Write the structure tokens for this entry.
Amino acid sequence: MPGNNQKSRTSNKVMTLFVCFLAALAGLLFGLDIGVIAGALPFIAKDFNVTAHQQEWIVSSMMFGAAVGAVGSGWMSSRLGRKKSLMAGAILFVIGSLWSAGATSPEMLIAARVVLGLAVGVASYTAPLYLSEIAPEKIRGSMISLYQLMITIGILAAYLSDTAFSDAGAWRWMLGIITIPAVLLLIGVFFLPNSPRWLAAKGDFRSAERVLSRLRDTSEQAKRELDEIRESLKIKQSGWQLFQSNSNFRRAVFLGVLLQVMQQFTGMNVIMYYAPKIFEIAGFANTTQQMWGTVIVGLVNVLATFIAIGLVDRWGRKPTLVLGFMVMAIGMGILGTMLHIGIHSPEAQYFAVAMLLMFIIGFAMSAGPLIWVLCSEIQPLKGRDFGITVSTATNWIANMIVGATFLTMLNTLGNAPTFWVYAGLNVFFILLTLALIPETKNVSLEHIERNLMSGKKLRDIGQK
Ligand code: BGC
């Protein structure tokens, strides 16, 4: 009955899209929690009368929680499954949002942000993993980019809501309103199916097949995929043993760590967390200007992510990264120089904003999404869970270091040199990319693995 077939195909497509959308909602929350602190911090600082150092900890406590959450969720998502992990993450999101909104002291706020961080850590590990296991092969790559897009949309939404509440200085509302998407995620996760790959890994092939037949166009497709999963499960995850015994795998883990350190030390999150402060340094004295400036930063971040989505499979990873680091180095370098000379006219102010936006474009079109893509491509199957856990945790630790040192750097080195340090790092990353980063465009993951394990140089593991 072709009519019926057609109908079930359409409903399976809708089901797959619904599942991917829900999992990507976790990305949105990740972004909301990164973005919200920028607008809330100036008011929190005033209310609690905190020092620069305490402010840095209010920002960074979340990243500390996220690093712990990412490490813990490697274990949790293989024991309890991806669905239950996401559920645990959503519950933590709800608790953390409410608690931080009601915090009565800086210490309590820091503790609440550690809980939020745990949620973000779980989400940042589990959601992309779940997506890559649920999405049909054809759209697996774009799913990871979609996830990054959701992060940037979350950051923008947080900036907008911060702006809406800023007239009243209502930082508790800024933090508390995130409870709404967190509850939506929690409700949505109830309706998510378990990951077929995880079910099969637990030996429950019947349920795995049932889930796949609801998600794929035809039952043949579902069967074929289940066979592939069965085949790949013959390789048991034994990342830690492999790490101890195999120096080629250690190189892949090292590469994942390096990639995430590079992403964070571009300085992107300095702007994500402290954008209003940077606008203040650039001479925008009034809070409304600072808040709207921050919204524009968020918007440009979303839009420029589309450049990456368009370039990544055409140009490849390496040239896009090199170009991105160059753009970032120029943006940061000129901004630093302008701060050094002094920004005295409105023209100079707007030029400084243009440089800031140039930096954002540089990041969003390259390191933002590409580092996540590369990290998911370079690990050999047997050590995949371990390798990705290590690189994701590195993302958060490096993120924490950047967030915890920016204000101190401004106070000790001065404004201009702080920006020059980041400009210099971006120049260094151009060289590192050329020397060490592989091009993985149009190469199968099996091929990358074979090259890595046969001892090829890191930068050549993507060679055909
Ligand atoms: C990074 C985050 C960053 C975000 C900005 C992500 O890829 O991991 O640290 O805040 O991009 O868009």
The mean pLDDT is 89. Residues 46 and 309 are 40 Å apart (CA to CA). The two ends are 45 Å apart (CA to CA). The chain has 20 helices and no strands.
